[in-house]
Amino acid sequence: MNPIPQLQKWDSTLDLLRDPYRFISRNCQNKQSDLFEARLLLQKTFCMRGQEAAQVFYDPDLFCRAGAAPKAVMKTLFGQGGVQSLDEDAHRHRKQMFLSIMTSEQIDRLEVLTERQLSAALPRWKTMAEVSLYEEFQRVLTIAVCEGAGVPLADSEVELRTRQLTSLFHDAAKIGMEHFRARRARRHTNDWITDLIQQIRAQEISLPAQSPASTIAWHRDLNNDLLDPQVAAVELLNLLRPVVAISVYMTLIAHALHFHPDCREKLKSGSEEYVRAFVQEVRRYYPFFPFTAAIVQTYFEWNGFEFPRGKRVLLDLYGTNHDSRIWKEPELFQPDRFLQREPTPYDFIPQGGGEYALNHRCPGEWITVSLMKLTSRFLTQKMHYEVRDQKLEIDFSQMPALPRGQFMISSVCAADSQPVATSPSQPQRVRI
Hints:
This protein has 432 residues and is of the alpha+beta class.
């Protein structure tokens, strides 16, 4: 067997936190290997990247997910007892519940609800001196996904629930008070949705049988038992939270349009094929999830390396999407590459790899693509806005990675209206 390249530092956790999206690929390149070992969170961990690595990583006979994610992540981002922590038959059974929700009718309805909220937000944006697209997209998606899922949301609750659902993903990987804010948000959202699950089961609230909230509330496990109310709440939040997290990608779409105005003109043409290619390139090019974790459940050998049972392994998602062996000129933003080829389940993995029904690949990927296509059309065909000088470089030290200035826009108006004139005393802005 070949010796596995090792990082010399006693623990590399701080290095990982400083550059979570490029840590694995940078060290793979330094070691000239798709695999190396590092001590992370005081535990020896294998880190791997690339298409071949992804094929191995998503083999359910070789890897399991139980115990792979740090407890801090389970207590904030995923919640305890959810589908991300299950394996084998239990995972497939629970995943089928989510797949039953991801019907074309449900996705179309969520798209309609989101577009309705975007259109409703336009008049308010017109009155604002500056608009934080990231924050506004969070609000839009919270209202839309709650309505689409059958979760009652009073107008007085919108700001609170938006803030809590956002904190579950925005603050989960932070250190200090921000992380504890995510834990507090997890407790409060769990209580909120657990109460809803109990109301549904007690028939104190009436929802359509096909609504996601009802489907999850009445889902039965492999023993034909209803899920524990708190676990059912975690799973319903596993629908709400990821949809609100699409606000990250929506903001990055605006970023891509700003720096690639030629794409804006092509999107205005209304070509569905180009819209799809543009969205896929945003998902490939920009950071979203940096990596994912698993545990070796049975000893195996790969490329001359030994993988002992119980070893924690990280798969580099961002690095695989920027692997020059897979992607020509990966550091260039080129939507046309997706007009020329169809990605495979293992070379294009922004939200995980493998098959939806069998592997730990996000079943909400279809929703992500749908809402990103909507956003691309809305920003180019439904509204005008200006972008002032601001810090727009992507902050790779944060998860999620976003423009440092959060991408602020101003002088917003509908596409069929005349843009508001900019005062000479205001900072110089760029019309897009």
